[in-house]
């Protein structure tokens, strides 16, 4: 697959995804809550997690409706986590996706509620009255809950907050980012595979691909934090360094961090080769986009 075909797939997939997500996030939620939710999740972001769900589902010949619901649910969880992480009690950031963070735009209380509501909505989206078999609903809910809870994203954020000003070795740093960022990206891939008749071999290899990609994403994030400007990133550059947070750049150095990102991309592609699936080109090119991105 060439770059033009891949870009067309991305554009087509994201157009369908944005339409689906727009229809699922209610503007009618009371007292301005719907407006805050829609501000937080619509019209911005890389949408990497939804693309991973859809690409993985396509690779295993899965159910597109279930995968689109899973894609929306994952992005709702991701968006809720950003709203909460940006608040003054956590990372205290004022810019996200090139615009004021949700608590700056709507106030802290409304932002907290918007995050809470998006988290609940994610699981509502995965349990429609029809269209997804009950067993698959349960599987998708379990994958999403485990990746976003204490052993995943929330646990990683707790370690992150507890590590400010501390020296971490690479093993501890890797565990923190595996939980905070990597596990939800990995779950996106596995959720997509769960929507189709994936073999145990393919599912395991896709999970390994997702784990390598998730770590690569964070390594690149740490690199960009010190090499790009805020207007390119769409968020405050140099924030982790200013907050004295451990990163791959501070622990390994910039050159070694860049080498690690390339090694993780190669690891992800080896995992794809082990899936036994006929066409994993979308997933392979998504790995390239993660490592080569500039924001």
Automatic annotation (TrEMBL):
State the species of origin. Answer: Pelomonas parva
| One Pfam family matching this protein | polyprenyl_synt
Protein name from the UniProt record? Polyprenyl synthetase family protein
**Cofactor (UniProt):** Mg(2+)
Specify the superkingdom: Bacteria
Which EC class heads this enzyme's classification?
Answer: transferase
Q: Which UniProt keywords apply?
A: Isoprene biosynthesis, Magnesium, Metal-binding, Transferase
Similarity field:
Belongs to the FPP/GGPP synthase family.
Q: Determine if Transcription regulation is one of this entry's keywords.
A: no
Q: Which Gene Ontology MF annotations are present?
A: transferase activity
Xref: CDD domains: Trans_IPPS_HT
User: What EC number(s) does its UniProt record assign?
Assistant: 2.5.1.-
Q: What is this organism's lineage?
A: Bacteria, Pseudomonadati, Pseudomonadota, Betaproteobacteria, Burkholderiales
Keyword Magnesium: yes or no?
A: yes
Cite the InterPro entries for this sequence: Isoprenoid_synthase_dom_sf (IPR008949), Polyprenyl_synt (IPR000092), Polyprenyl_synt_CS (IPR033749), Prenyl_diphosphate_synthase (IPR053378)
- PANTHER family documented for this protein: FARNESYL DIPHOSPHATE SYNTHASE
